[in-house]
Design a protein that fits this description.
Layout (H helix, E strand, L loop, with lengths): L8 H16 L7 H21 L9 E5 L8 H5 L3 E6 L2 H9 L3 E4 L11 E7 L8 H10 L1 E10 L6 H5 L2 H5 L9
Parallel strand pairs: 1-2, 1-4, 2-3, 4-5
């Protein structure tokens, strides 16, 4: 399901830089509660990934979080010895994670290419925001090791009421939902 018409890429970038966080979180800056919720979410992702991907061992591993917000999702990976990098187009939220010592870049996955290929790429509630999902996935594949993994979370059409409370809040956003 797509909203139609879709915003132009320029409009999308402005929306995410200026309007997105104030609409959905209520703040232009990432507060401590937001960051701590991201850290908890990162623990859940880490647990899921390490339980289901048996190839991860004692080797030095690298994770990228695309659309990382304040980057809190990366904390558990760092604490577990991984190299961790994130990117987002919300500059104010990135500052919160950078202040915590995280390596976060303003931009998309292309900005993370300089850190070398990743073992794991996290797309937590971001794939539905890409103006060109196929192109974005191709770019993501270019910075993923051949035996790497992509962790994808998407909002479900049947759980909008749980996540957003108000369906109109969900639908006003430029989005795509994958039905399965």
């Amino acid at each position: 399901m797509w909203t139609n018409p879709r915003m132009s890429e320029e409009s999308l970038n402005m929306f995410y830089e200026v309007d997105y966080r104030p609409i959905y979180v209520g703040k232009t800056r990432a507060l401590n509660d937001f960051f701590l919720n991201q850290v908890q979410h990162g623990k859940n992702i880490y647990k899921f990934v390490t339980q289901h991907v048996t190839t991860y061992s004692e080797q030095k591993l690298k994770v990228f979080d695309i659309g990382c917000g304040a980057g809190g999702t990366l904390v558990t990976f760092l604490e577990s010895g991984w190299s961790a990098f994130g990117c987002d187009i919300g500059e104010e939220y990135l500052r919160r994670g950078i202040d915590e010592g995280l390596v976060l870049e303003y931009g998309d996955v292309v900005t993370l290419a300089k850190y070398g290929p990743a073992n794991l790429i996290i797309l937590s509630h971001v794939l539905e925001h890409f103006p060109y999902p196929l192109l974005s996935l191709q770019q993501i594949a270019q910075v993923l090791l051949d035996d790497g993994y992509i962790y994808i979370e998407l909002p479900g059409i049947f759980s909008i009421h749980k996540t957003y409370g108000d369906t109109m809040l969900f639908l006003q956003m430029p989005t795509c939902i994958i039905l399965h």
